[in-house]
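ERR on first pass: missing label on line 2. Operator R.T. fixed the label and resubmitted. Corrected input:
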Amino acid sequence: MNGELQPPVDTTVDLGGIVLKNPVIAASGCYNRGAEYGRVADLSAWGAITLKSVTRQPRLGNDMPRVANTPAGMVNAIGLQGPGIEYFLKVEAPKLADVPTAIIASVAGFTTLEFADVAARLDGLPNVVAIELDISCPNVESEGGACFAADPDATAAVVRAVKRRARLPVIAKLTPNVTDLRPIALAAEAAGANALSLINSVRGMVIDVEQTRPMLANATGGLTGPAIRPIAVAAVWDVAQAVKLPVIGMGGIASGRDAVEFMLAGASAVSIGTAVFRDPQAHLRVARALSEEAQRRGLASVRALAGLANPTFAAQRARR
Amino acid sequence: MNGRRERLNVMASAAPVLEAAALVTREYIAPGFWYLGCRAPKIARAARAAQFVAIDVPGEFSPRLPLGIWTAEADQVSFLFREWGDRTTRLARLHHNAEVSLLGPLGNAFEAPPEGARAIIAAGGLGIVPFWLLVKTLAASAVDMHVVVGARSKELIVGVDALTELGAKIHLCTDDGSAGRKGSVVDEVRDVARTGDVVYGCGPRAMLKALCEFANAAGVACQISMEETFGCSMGTCWGCVVPVKRESAQGTQYPRAPDERRAYDVARVCADGTVFRAADVLWPG
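pass 2 clean. output:
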């Protein structure tokens, strides 16, 4: 290029109407609204921060212990602890105005109606650009005794109920703890979801062999961290081929290379969760690496990386 | 911060920093126990008693390992830890001058006793860690201090010499009677403490529970530094909680409490603690 400056890579992404300045998102349950990590990291470098899931009622969560370390990751069973929507709106919501980037609110519930009731109250909050539906927490059970995202009809019912009541774009967060994610993803799409997040944590367990009992009070928990990355990449690969919706890929992303891997599989954005527990500045490294990778390949935008390794996804997108 | 939070936070602290530290000393000090000294001037300057750092242990991915700060002098901080799992094993194998990333100091700190009050310090095993900084600070203001140190047996007692050097009066207790009193730290505290003293504690859960029960029943002020398995170490994951006696955040009572008659909330050990007042902690089970 004869020393000529290359035009900067366009880092913006449009996730079904959710426009972010870059595709690097803080995953729910790991970051609160950023106040803690903001002491040692630049929050404005996130494309968005996803809040911890809010429920209708206050919840104490599970008994201790709630976390245990595992090879290349950790298991957790927090149990959706939180103060509930009333407190959230009164005390937490006004503080969202201070967050220097976009916010995705996360909603969890135990009935379809609860999801809709809570989601309906999140319109108009400062900086909140979307609602993520946590229909896939492995550590609590819905009314029917199973996770919503284990079933296409239950998934569709929640998405439809929320779309009827909320004006914000809706992201359905799906679980890998199923035989085939595709019919569930298609059901969420048909019900009107704007985007999909995948994957939530993988059900797992650690036993304390000396004490002869499970490490977690909840016995089982959700495995996160690099240990689950290949599972997540395969899930993104499968679902990105099957649906037209943008997919936010997550599960063990700890480096720029990992984020590129998810984009190449078909993700339109990526979320980082457990990795910030090691590197509070992981998002800076990842965002920079995505730009550099696009530049290295001569692409004008980071979003052009999406699906480059996934021919079926690429062919489908070309038809659109 | 609202009034409730202030009441619970025993002492607010300076903001943590990320600091690249060089490992300068590593010693095997007792069966399974290591001493680690790191050059980390910013953290050394800011550290206060009962604060901890979260160490990025080089190698395979894992969340940062929380380690209580033992000494903090000039440009160095040190830690005492037991080798028991993957991260501590890797930490114990680091070579001299290895660079590690420290995040800290984290958590709140012990509060000094009121003018004229004695400090009775109860340390069970590695629970001695937060007390070098406390003893050092209190020695500077000539507080009368008694440090009760307990371990299963004599060879597992660590850190006592350093506290003796700072001028603390040491009372030893061992479960097997191989050093000092044959009995528990709490037995000794019960004999030593009197009204008007401030009791400080750190150690195994059962010891802390017994210490709090004693202090609450005797009407003696008591602050304890608690330990739990942390996820994030920063207060975001809610993986390390302890039930505490306070109006819950929403001003309503949670539906499930260990003692249904009282309002209760859960606090994060890593971010709202690690120091709590004995009178605030509830002990389920």
